[in-house]
Write a structure and sequence with these properties.
- It is a single chain.
- With about 325 residues, the protein is an alpha+beta fold.
- It is about 30% helix and about 30% strand.
- It has six helices and 15 strands.
- The strands form five sheets. It has a five-stranded antiparallel beta sheet. It has a four-stranded antiparallel beta sheet with strand order 1-2-3-4, covered by helices on one side.
- A hairpin with a 4-residue loop joins β3 and β4.
- The chain starts with 13 loop residues before the first helix and ends with a strand.
Length: about 325
């Protein structure tokens, strides 16, 4: 006989348990799907971030490398290192010099860039080291000797031929006091401008020109002596190596001419990168009223040479030498 008692499926809590269990499953399913979507979004964002930064780092490296073609006397790229964050990164660019085939670690420059494409030299990366020099102090120079802050080597200075400096450095006489086994880098400032061909003819054959300093001075007002309010005279100072432009030989070839400088400037204009305005300024200064500059418009104001101590002594007393400033000095062995 059938029980007339009404059936209650929730009497023992079974239905509630089933509902709660279903809710828990649904919640965990939602959490899992949300977590999966979040991870997928983060992975996509990470990949997009990396792709953007790789692209912008390549552009920054291109601009830096191209600019080094007209700056940094006797300096060559020694490699780079990249560090990526979120939508920004840092690029560490290293350089070295060659003194008669001997490499000298020279500089480490850090540039910061972002995913938009902007990049600049890190604010804390402009370290400099200028110290009193015994001989310069004795001769009453009103500026200090610059040194490379990474290795302690001397930094070269360059003197414009048509600027009147109270005193100029000519350190060819110091070669007499050096160990004859040393290999020397020397920055020569000329008494006037010359061509590559003229320079190669007038330099002694045992002295090797490695970098040519070019006249890019569209504004020479900063090189005029000025009378200060207190009555003193603010005299012009020579340019440190980091402020001059030019072109030089490469480790794998040495046959360079003024055309190499013009090509580097033109390439910088064509790319329209970070240093476009500076390339354009140099281009306009060289061409004057012409459509574009010619090889004869590249006026060379000085040269960086390397050689042994004995060989460089041949520069003493040369009329074309307005100034000669020592750079890196290394051992032959």
């Amino acid at each position: 006989m059938m029980n007339d008692k009404e059936f209650n499926p929730d009497e023992d809590g079974g239905l509630s348990k089933l509902i709660k269990k279903a809710k828990r499953r649904s919640m965990w399913r939602i959490v899992g799907v949300s977590l999966g979507i979040s991870l997928l979004v983060l992975a996509c964002a990470y990949l997009v971030n990396l792709q953007l930064l790789y692209k912008k780092a390549d552009h920054a490296l291109r601009d830096i490398s191209m600019f080094k073609e007209i700056s940094g006397p006797n300096q060559y790229g020694a490699g780079y290192r990249q560090n990526f964050g979120f939508l920004e990164g840092a690029l560490e660019f290293q350089t070295y010099k060659l003194v008669e085939g001997i490499p000298v670690v020279w500089n480490k420059e850090t540039y910061e860039f972002n995913a938009v494409g902007n990049f600049s030299r890190s604010l804390g990366d402009y370290s400099s080291l200028s110290l009193p020099d015994f001989s310069m102090s004795n001769e009453k120079f009103d500026y200090l000797r610059p040194y490379n802050p990474y290795n302690g080597e001397r930094e070269m200075l360059f003197y414009l031929p048509d600027v009147s400096y109270p005193k100029v450095l000519n350190e060819t006489s110091q070669l007499d006091d050096m160990d004859s086994r040393k290999l020397v880098e020397l920055g020569i400032s000329f008494n006037t401008h010359y061509t590559v061909e003229q320079i190669n003819e007038m330099l002694p054959p045992s002295i090797h020109p490695v970098w040519y300093w070019v006249d890019t001075y569209s504004n020479k007002k900063p090189y005029l002596a000025k009378k200060m309010p207190d009555g003193t005279i603010d005299n012009p100072s020579p340019d440190p190596a980091r402020r001059v432009y030019g072109f030089g030989v490469h480790p794998d070839y040495e046959d360079v001419t003024e055309k190499d400088f013009l090509s580097a400037v033109q390439n910088g204009i064509n790319v329209k990168g970070k240093y476009y305005s500076e390339y354009k300024r140099i281009f306009d200064y060289l061409r004057q009223e012409k459509e574009k500059p010619a090889q004869s418009d590249v006026r060379i104001l000085g040269v960086v040479v390397t050689g042994t101590v004995e060989h460089l002594k041949a520069l003493k007393g040369q009329r074309y030498v307005k100034a000669a400033v020592l750079g890196a000095i290394v051992d032959k062995y």
